[in-house]
# Entry
Amino acid sequence: MSKIIIVLFLSIVIFSPMTVFAQTNSATLKSRQILKERLDAIKEERKQKIEEFKEKIAAIKDERKKALVEKIVEKISNSNERLTARMSAALARLSSILKNLSEKAANLKASGKDTSELEKAISQAETAIEEAKSAVAAQAEKKYSANLINDSTLRNAIGEMISQFRKDLRDAHKKVAAARQAISKAVAELAQLGGVRNSATQSGNMD
# Structure
């Protein structure tokens, strides 16, 4: 029964519009600084790849093939933007759940409950969410281009580009899935302390 309650709670709360919880501890600030540096490096690499791709595609003699490559690259770019935006939205909802969990943990601790395991789970969830945000932000900045050498290698080059894009997306999604799993674990710990009730799952709020 408790598992059903947990699943219902996550289903309702994750899809409820909630404010993103701003993490302010030192570990989070450090991870954000690392993320900023990483994104700056990715942006610079992206600029270089764009210039290199322009030069390579200009060397393609067949105009039909050239148009096809440009269309595929644009499609990948649009897909990357759409999918990373979706992952970012999911992480924002998980951050909101984390905020509610933290507030509930504080209330339970004040009432004399042993919240050590819950606090540990919340800390792990916070780390998982930050790692996922970093991965998704980095993925959103990536630019894909085929390693074009000549017309004869065009098919293989495009195939490699698409395969790399799919792999990168899977890697980012795994981070989001890990964050969701960490939140589930924290909710389970909260349930053991009596912090999740039927009324809470029905309203999408935590009392």
